[in-house]
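At this stage, I needed to go through a protein sequence along with its fold in token form, as given directly below:
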Amino acid sequence: MSYLDNKTPIPGTIMFDGSKARKGYGLNKMCYSLNDQSARDEFASDEMAYCEKFGLTEGQKEAIKNRDVIGLLEQGGSIYFLAKFTGGLGLNMQDIGAIQTGMTVEEFRAKLVKAGE
């Protein structure tokens, strides 16, 4: 059995490492804040002001505005924190997996089922 080191790319994924964690700190902190209804309400009333509150970069704000999940991952977003943001968009983890792999949700689900057989 071979193990991947933290430098080996995995097709269809964006590696979340220390560099991405530093880059995405404000973004991930903002997404985590969306656990609270008051934060979701504040975000909904003025998204860009809410992003500013957490010091998001222009690239991160653009990805938020465009609902660009892949862009958010590239901008340092952790899928675990982004789930708070994407959940508000009505997306679940299978939807995100489909987006990441370029598949339809149905194709992605079928892939998961097959992998589990």
Q: What stands out?
A: The chain has a mean pLDDT of 89.
